[in-house]
Automatic annotation (TrEMBL):
<dbReference type="InterPro" id="IPR027417">
    <property type="entry name" value="P-loop_NTPase"/>
</dbReference>
<dbReference type="Pfam" id="PF25872">
    <property type="entry name" value="HTH_77"/>
</dbReference>
<dbReference type="InterPro" id="IPR058852">
    <property type="entry name" value="HTH_77"/>
</dbReference>
<dbReference type="InterPro" id="IPR011990">
    <property type="entry name" value="TPR-like_helical_dom_sf"/>
</dbReference>
<feature type="domain" description="Winged helix-turn-helix">
    <location>
        <begin position="295"/>
        <end position="361"/>
    </location>
</feature>
<protein>
    <recommendedName>
        <fullName>Winged helix-turn-helix domain-containing protein</fullName>
    </recommendedName>
</protein>
Length: 720
């Protein structure tokens, strides 16, 4: 399964038990015929078959069960099963169904380029899809989650599986209470999922651990003390690295302190006894940690999504906790299952389960350190974003793209925390730097959202304001929002003149000229951008803006029909990008040159240039409209070379990208639309409609990885 089959995390530990619940969920989550009329004629959630909520307290295993159930029904959903994690919003200050729509779009990698509200754009994109959304951790945003889910009700083949401590309260919602794992009181193997889980996790920390006549009764006693709560069982099993099984049982049998009252629901609707074992076990695990381990646990709670050892050192060190001690203590917390290791990115990263993170956050508040640690968190990601901007126009662009995508949740948390603080200068800087990176990495909506908040404070002129204004206008251009682009073009030009910065003034032409080109006024765009001063390209973010400005001029020449000028300017941009090792802007120039090659009959060169453009987006892991345009161009080169079946497959791959971009297929550009239609007609004329449809669909169902690899594969093929 590829990326477009979903985003479920890879299995790092065996899944134990829950067979009855999985069987019920298998039935509840199977696709049906869509929404039906509910009371008052309103289209509802079809008797609960389209909205299922797993209910239970923290640590009961709702997320693991939801992910496992989703994994098992994945073949029934052609458009994938998608995990939308909401716990990262707990500390960000972001609320509202529109924000949930933005987070869901990011999870599904829907890069909608329109200015519609996020949830409306998502609803439009999923309207004809058959997919399953897993909304994890809804309880802290209950009303917003209900409103968000309700807005998606008209998508007839979309199912939702939610996890929450309380029900969403929507008509037709079907709830499944997640109970503790069973513990057989007699000590036999009749039903002892909790004991099986304990033994599995114990074997991971104590080599050779098995259940036998001697260990089984003690393991059963341990699990009874823990009421079969999965998280409590896992935390207790981790303690076997330092305690014997008998010592563990004795400790649990004498615990009376229940610190974790914060896990009880606010309205008291949940059974307090259900929380007792978990409160006891997490509180006990906390007390068994060394003092510095407890301090690190608390400080790690400020991270969103995940973190690496370097970030943990920078953010969590201070006072009695030296930076050099953090990696060792982090390993200790991982050995005790306080933090989870994640190797999916190739670099060791860590994350905390929500319940454990909540405990750490509560403890951080008790220590009176929350603001200080969050400030260090902000400063770390402020420096990261600043460095990313400074090096975006260099050979490190690929690494920065990967880093920005990996640390998106932490960057967003840092930006939002800053926007809620009185230091407006810091807020403007990090909003501008993070926004600049987000625009290039597929998060245009996030960039626009944070920049609008930062600019609403009417900040004073300066370099930070210049970057923020340019990025906001450039984001509007990527959305085709020409009026907003024109507004920010004017504001940016005014500030650039005040700063007396020739380089800044030269890149104002990108904002003012590009919006003219999008309006179909290419000759005016050429005239405006041609007079912009050409200066040596700088190494900072303005240098990236400089070469993008020159690239926009090349596109305007192409649209105005001046092919000679378009090629000359494109080659100028490509040479600068090659010298720097830059891929993002070079890919756009490669597409322009490929189109020029095809217009002049040089099919082989056109194919090479278009393939190079696609390869750049593959390196940047970009599923943007720019990648879709590159593959459309490659399809035109491919049919011109006589490879009709492959060209049809490429159109299918590109369409999948356009679908994910949402709302603006071929950018609503008459030239791009005409080129694609001409390509499709040529393919149909060569191989016929049935063969075209078959090959097109074969490309359309490819995953992102499969599609990009296929598009960049230059292995010679027979024509036809």
């Amino acid at each position: 399964m590829g990326e477009w089959s979903g985003n479920l995390p890879s299995e790092t530990r065996s899944f134990v038990g829950r067979q009855d619940e999985l069987a019920r969920l298998d039935v509840m989550l199977r696709p049906d015929d869509g929404p039906v009329e509910s009371g008052g004629g309103r289209r509802g959630w079809n008797g609960g078959r389209r909205l299922v909520t797993l209910l239970g307290p923290g640590g009961i295993g709702k997320t693991r069960l939801a992910v496992e159930a989703a994994r098992r029904v994945r073949p029934a959903y052609p458009d994938g099963v998608w995990l939308v994690e909401l716990s990262c919003l707990h500390d960000s200050g972001l609320t509202g169904p529109g924000t949930l729509g933005l987070v869901a779009m990011e999870a599904l990698r829907v890069a909608d380029q329109t200015t519609r509200p996020a949830t409306e754009a998502l609803a439009a994109w999923i309207a004809d899809k058959q997919l399953l959304l897993v909304l994890d951790s809804c309880e802290h945003l209950l009303e917003d989650c209900a409103a968000f889910v309700d807005e998606l009700r008209l998508a007839p083949h979309v199912h939702i599986l939610a996890t929450s401590r309380r029900r969403l309260g929507l008509p037709g919602e079907r709830c499944l209470e997640v109970e503790p794992l069973p513990v057989d009181e007699s000590g036999t193997a009749a039903r002892e999922d909790a004991v099986t889980l304990f033994a599995d996790r114990a074997a991971a920390v104590r080599s050779g651990f098995v259940l036998d006549e001697a260990t089984r009764p003690v393991a059963v006693s341990v699990c009874q003390h823990l009421d079969g709560i999965p998280l409590a069982v896992e935390l207790a099993a981790a303690r076997l690295s330092t305690l014997s099984l008998t010592e563990l049982d004795d400790h649990l049998g004498t615990r009376t302190d229940h610190r974790l009252a914060l896990l009880a629901s606010d309205d008291g609707t949940e059974d307090p006894s259900r929380h007792q074992a978990l409160r006891t076990t997490i509180g006990w695990s906390h007390e068994l940690c060394a003092p510095l381990e407890r301090l690190l646990w608390a400080r790690l709670a400020v991270f969103s999504g995940g973190f690496d050892a370097e970030a943990a050192q920078e953010v969590c060190a201070g006072g009695p906790l030296a930076a050099g001690q953090v990696p060792v203590l982090l390993d200790e917390l991982a050995a005790q299952s306080i933090v989870q290791r994640d190797q999916r990115t190739g670099t060791a990263r860590f994350r905390m389960l929500d319940t454990v993170r909540e405990y750490g956050a509560d403890w951080l508040g008790e220590l009176g350190e929350e603001d200080a640690v969050r400030l260090r968190h902000r400063e770390y990601y402020r420096r990261l974003a600043r460095d990313g901007c400074a090096e975006w126009n260099t050979g490190r662009q690929v690494q920065w793209s990967a880093r920005v995508l990996t640390d998106h949740a932490n960057l967003r948390a840092a930006v939002d925390w800053s926007l809620d603080r009185p230091d407006r200068r810091a807020a403007l800087e990090i909003a501008g730097t993070a926004g600049f990176l987000w625009r290039h990495c597929g998060h245009v909506r996030d960039a626009n959202h944070c920049l609008d908040r930062a600019l609403a404070a009417d900040p004073p002129p300066g370099p930070d304001l210049l970057r923020a204004l340019w990025t906001r206008g450039a984001g509007a251009i990527m959305q085709g929002d020409v009026d907003t682009a024109a507004e920010f073009g004017r504001r940016f030009t005014d500030v650039a003149r005040q700063q007396v910065d020739p380089a800044a003034l030269s890149v104002s032409a990108y904002l003012t000229g590009s919006q003219l080109a999008l309006r179909g006024r290419s000759a005016e765009a050429v005239g405006l951008m041609s007079v912009a001063t050409r200066l040596p390209v700088r190494d900072d973010w303005l240098g990236s803006a400089q070469i993008q400005t020159i690239g926009a001029l090349a596109y305007a020449h192409l649209m105005s029909g001046d092919h000679e000028a378009a090629r000359a300017v494109s080659e100028e941009v490509r040479a600068e990008c090659v010298r720097r090792g830059e891929h993002w802007t070079r890919s756009t120039s490669d597409v322009i040159v490929a189109k020029l090659d095809l217009a002049h009959g040089d099919i082989a060169s056109g194919a090479r240039n278009a393939t190079r453009a696609v390869a750049a987006h593959q390196l940047l892991h970009s599923a943007s409209i720019l990648a879709a345009t590159a593959i459309d161009t490659l399809a035109s080169a491919t049919i011109a070379a006589g490879e009709a079946h492959r060209a049809a497959e490429l159109l299918g791959i590109a369409q999948r990208l356009w679908d994910r971009a949402g709302g603006r297929t071929q950018l609503n550009s008459p030239d791009l639309i005409a080129a694609r239609q001409a390509c499709e007609r040529a393919i149909r004329d060569k191989i016929g409609d049935p063969a075209y449809e078959h090959s097109y669909e074969a490309g359309r169902v490819m995953s992102y990885e499969q599609g990009m690899s296929y598009a960049t594969d230059t292995t010679p093929r027979a024509s036809g």
